[in-house]
Amino acid sequence: MRHLVTSVAPLPLQGGGLGRFIDPFAQFLTDVANMEPVLLQLLAFGLLLGGVYALTALGLTMIFGVMDVINFAHGVFLVVGMYTVWLVSTTVGISPFVGIPIAAVVLFVLGIGVHILTVEPIIEAPQQNQLIATLGVLLIIQSAIEIIFTPDPQQVELSLGSVQVGGVFIPLGQFYALLIALGTMLGVRAFLNRTDLGRKIRGTADNRDGARYVGINVPQINYLTFGIGAALAGVAGGSIALFQRFDPFTGETYLINAFVIVILGGLGSFPGAFVGGLIVGMIQVFGGYYLPGTTSQVLIFLLFIGTLLVKPEGLFGGANA
Amino acid sequence: MSTLDSVRESYQTFDDQRFAPLVKGVVLFTLLAALPFIIEIDVAGMELAATLSLKVLILTVIYAYTAQSWNIMSGYTGQFSFGHAAFFGIGAYATQKLLVDFAINPWLGMLVAGIIAALYGLLIGALSFRFNLKGHYFALATLAFAELLRFVVTNMSELRGANGYFKPFPRDYGAEYGLVAFQFQNDLPYYYVILGFLLVVTVISWAIKNSWVGLYFFAIREDERAAASVGVPSFRYKLIGVAVSAFFTALGGAYWSMYFNTIRPDTVFALFKNVELLLPAVVGGPGTLIGPIVGSFIVTPVSEVARTTFTNINGLDRIIYGAFLVAIVIYSPRGVVSWPSRARALWNRVRGDTEVSER
Amino acid sequence: MTNMDHQSPERDGETLLTVEGVGKRFSGLQALQDVDMTVNSGEIIGLIGPNGAGKTTLFNCISGAFPPTSGTVTLEGNVISGLPAHKVARAGLARTFQITRPLEELTVVENAMVGAHIHTRRRQEAREIALENLEFVGLSDRAEEEAGELTVGAQKRLELARAISTRPKILLLDEIMAGLTPQESNQMLGLFRQLRERGTSLLIIEHDMKAIMNISDYVKVLDQGQGIAFGKPNEVVEDDRVIEAYIGGFDVDA
């Protein structure tokens, strides 16, 4: 358990005083007034990161919206996606881009397995029990990865380089990840809106009891939703692996931010997840630049709490997955 | 009438006595007090101490204590907190801050820490209850309040950032090893201190349960609207629950900071700390008095023994622990304390006893 | 003349509960409009009307489940509208729910004790009050059972016991006889009379017309959120507006 925490590197200690909270914002405003070029660069980074964040929240918001289950294993599902892409590219030599759909399939199967073994038996139990069960799954998978692949960080060998667009530097790995994220989101949206199965899933999200009455096989929808949610985590994890190092414990930070995005955007809302992802991405990028240490995360939690209190249904409230 | 029935009947007679809870409590705590010696008894060449060390016992009682504290809020009033690491961390940090930077005795510092935690609990409660957060949303809000503190502390030089505090020597705050200094040179006194903590919080829990406060708590848990319709001010009582629970949880954090050498944001405020603190209560039976204690004696040794047994495969212990979590919530959603009555129901069914159903 | 003055000299007792111009609007839907009525001490008043007339909404406004959007409710001259439910209960008004809300995992006696604690913090005293009231409703032999295990009929009696354990001046009963056997209903009517003799006023929503006409001193009729008649039971049934409201709207089997 003591490994569960991704350790934060010791920070240089900041000077005291209120100034350290105010100065960064003053600096930011000055930069805005002067239209500093760095702002454009940060905006680009925020967009790149935010798009991927949105993708990490997609599966979570779907499971939350349809099944009313908080899936704590979602973060480790991401990690499985990362390792799958890494594994197929390093051992079999397949392109990581082909690895991403493989990760989706692996996660779909794993998701259904996890659902049948741990979530299904207690779908009607008190919510805290589901929470603890999915935490148990998190521990099991995370530790299994640690045992098999060691706790050392891994990296997909991929030198994609970067391009400069109008003075803005864009790393291609992140750019492709963003494209994958956007494509996946549009694809899933089309699936939910256009296909029969998709409509059934949405119907179940709107009203579980009602769905039962109109003859939707709700247990079946449940495990498909869990499978699809996990597959989306696979795609998200695989995309992150394109540009970032990872270890078995990487999922935790993404999990927490994914919760924030889900609540921020509104339970089960895809446009909400996208906007929520952008907000969190922007705060992290701008905060990382202007604020000391990991203070940006403090802002994210304040925003999270504020949303929960004032508008728990989120910016795009109403469950229309 | 079988022997079993007569045993049960005489137990029932005992149970109806007014002094029964007292007797049970004394027996339980005497047993707990004797545990460090019991584990050293040599049985056929095996002693429990080989696997169950005093350190494990201390951890077990720490988590029994925190789960008992969590239970006051979440088990009794039904407001499921997933963010008790906030209070635990406040307890540890406030105690160490006062001790290291101002040489304030940890016993006093601990009380200050408890009050700060209670105030933070009141803030969380006032906001969440006023805005009527329920279920998942409440759990996520409490988690967010805990995570918020983790990052605040990590980024505050006044609290030594990510490096955390290193517990000072007693002489650094003008004391000597012993009860006053809250530091001892071996583990046995530490065990009795935390056992004392557990006794206090258990007695207080018992007192709450056996007063109107407890009844109001349970009424709120069962149905807030029905409770309000007969005069239960649920907002106020939920706040009382949070504050008391936060106060005692913080004392647990204070103890933690005096037992272990260091505290850091990613240990005492860790995401998983939120789970560890409450887990024994869920496993043992939320809302019950004995549940958190029984639960901790099941959960904590499993995790600790697994950790010390499988040192060669780093991570195997957590797989076992995880599997254990899954199994326990699937097979025993109402906790271990429900086992005797479930066993009795099963036994009755097997015997074809219709006595229960005829009632 | 059925729309008789609320303060009619014919009525005995002091005015206890006054509902004045009460209205309730839910996002565009006017559920209640300008409802007036009074309940005097020691009276049993029936509140009737077709389905959707706003009877339960009126109960909710009076008991503090939610505040009315307009108008005031006073109890013994003190304004209680807008107060939260627990304060209304402490002012002396208790209620039961149309769909019973037992505190399921508490025992029967503990359910009633929650109500009794309104007057005392001492557990033993609350227990005595609770047991007394369980005896009154005929549940004392099941005092130690879990409330969730009771049948619907028993849960209704438990709700009554829990409510009267607060020793209310006025009791609001929302279809407490629905789903009871004729024998249970008769027992319930007996309890109502005894409660009245103890000085508790009763405001009763009930679909069983025979029962309500039999037990009520006066009847208030709501239709589409408005009060359309008030009077003695035999007068009200002959009122044209009441007959009109009930034609097609009134479910005969209820």
From TrEMBL, chain A:
GO molecular function: transmembrane transporter activity
Transmembrane region(s): 39-62, 69-88, 94-119, 131-149, 169-192, 221-243, 255-282, 289-310
GO cellular component: plasma membrane
Compartment(s): Cell membrane
Main location: membrane
Keywords tagged on the record: Amino-acid transport, Cell membrane, Membrane, Transmembrane, Transmembrane helix, Transport
Biological process annotations from GO: amino acid transport
Membrane topology reported for the UniProt record: Multi-pass membrane protein
Keyword Kinase appears in the UniProt entry: no
UniProt family annotation: Belongs to the binding-protein-dependent transport system permease family. LivHM subfamily.
Official protein name in the record: ABC transporter permease
Native source species: Haloferax profundi
UniProtKB/TrEMBL annotation, chain B:
Membrane topology field: Multi-pass membrane protein
GO molecular function: branched-chain amino acid transmembrane transporter activity
InterPro entries assigned: ABC_transp_permease, LivM-like
Major subcellular site: membrane
CDD domains named among the record's database cross-references: TM_PBP1_LivM_like (cd06581)
Keyword annotations: Cell membrane, Membrane, Transmembrane, Transmembrane helix
Annotated TM spans: 20-39, 46-65, 77-95, 107-129, 190-208, 239-256, 277-299, 319-337
Cellular compartments annotated: Cell membrane
GO cellular component, one term: plasma membrane
Entry protein name: ABC transporter permease
Organism (species): Haloferax profundi
From TrEMBL, chain C:
GO biological process, one term: L-alanine transport
Pfam families noted in UniProt: ABC_tran (PF00005), BCA_ABC_TP_C (PF12399)
Function: Probable component of a branched-chain amino-acid transport system.
GO MF: ATP binding; ATP hydrolysis activity; L-isoleucine transmembrane transporter activity; L-phenylalanine transmembrane transporter activity; L-valine transmembrane transporter activity
Recorded family membership: Belongs to the ABC transporter superfamily.
Alphabetic keyword roster: Amino-acid transport, ATP-binding, Nucleotide-binding, Transport
Spans traversing the lipid bilayer: none
InterPro entries: AAA+_ATPase, ABC_AA/LPS_Transport, ABC_transporter-like_ATP-bd, BCA_ABC_TP_C, P-loop_NTPase
Organism lineage: Archaea, Methanobacteriati, Methanobacteriota, Stenosarchaea group, Halobacteria
Domain ABC transporter: 17-249
UniProt-recorded name of the protein: Probable branched-chain amino acid transport ATP-binding protein LivG
Source taxon at top rank: Archaea
SMART domains named in the record: AAA
Keyword Protein biosynthesis set for record: no
A cellular component annotation (GO) from this entry: plasma membrane
